[in-house]
């Protein structure tokens, strides 16, 4: 069992990467980290991760993975604007593999067109509903919940859902 975990090269949300990562690794699942470029990635709170693959390289390796997970954080906006990231999401979805995203990264799934008619959640606040609007713009049915499962898509609302997000992914993989 092997999953691809995508993070932004800078400003990924630490707990949205490290908590699910720990849950998956404890269960014996191999996790390969990818980003816009290979090498050192830095979280919003200074956590360090090493991207073993670039997103571009990962596109040709989709068959090697059982799932795609995307961490959030302010850096995820850069992922959403990346055409290779959008292509990667589409490929995982077309091959009916598990696709999971947390915080603002469900907007990447929306932009890739895989949330049309699907239930999903995303990070928002009292002052910022832009991510909900983006999900709805691309046809998603927004649910105000910590974690939402719709078929082979798992979305989570943010850092407070990181533990549950990791547990749900593990359950879906088993």
Key structural traits:
alpha/beta, 174 residues, 7-stranded mixed sheet, 35% helix, 3-stranded mixed sheet
Write up what this structure looks like:
This protein is an alpha/beta fold and 174 residues long. Helices cover 35% and strands 26% of the residues. The chain has a 7-stranded mixed β-sheet, sandwiched between helices. It has a 3-stranded mixed β-sheet with strand order 2-4-5. The chain is globular. The chain has a single domain, classed as Rossmann fold, CATH 3.40.50.880. α6 (130-137) links the parallel β9 (119-120) and β10.
Describe this structure in a few short sentences:
The protein is an alpha/beta fold. The protein has helices at residues 14-26, 55-59, 76-80, 83-94, 106-111, 130-137, 162-173, and strands spanning 2-6, 10-12, 30-35, 39-43, 48-51, 53-54, 67-70, 98-102, 119-120, 141-142, 147-150, 153-156. A seven-stranded mixed sheet has the order 6-3-1-7-8-12-11, with helices on both faces. Strands 2-4-5 form a three-stranded mixed sheet.
């Amino acid at each position: 069992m092997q999953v691809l975990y995508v993070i932004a090269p800078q400003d990924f949300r630490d707990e949205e990467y490290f908590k699910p990562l720990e849950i998956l690794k404890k269960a014996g699942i191999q996790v390969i980290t990818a980003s816009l470029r290979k090498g050192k990635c830095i979280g919003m709170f200074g956590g360090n991760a090493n991207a073993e693959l670039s997103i571009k390289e990962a596109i040709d390796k989709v068959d090697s993975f059982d799932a795609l997970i995307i961490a959030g954080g302010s850096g995820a906006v850069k992922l959403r604007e990346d055409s290779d990231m959008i292509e990667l999401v589409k490929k995982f979805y077309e091959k009916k593999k598990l696709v999971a995203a947390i915080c603002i990264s469900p907007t990447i799934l929306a932009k890739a067109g895989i949330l049309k008619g699907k239930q999903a959640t995303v990070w928002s606040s009292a002052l910022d509903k832009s991510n909900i609007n983006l999900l709805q713009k691309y046809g998603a049915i927004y649910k105000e919940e910590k974690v939402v499962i719709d078929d082979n898509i798992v979305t989570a609302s943010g850092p407070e859902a990181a533990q549950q997000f990791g547990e749900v992914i593990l359950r879906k993989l088993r």
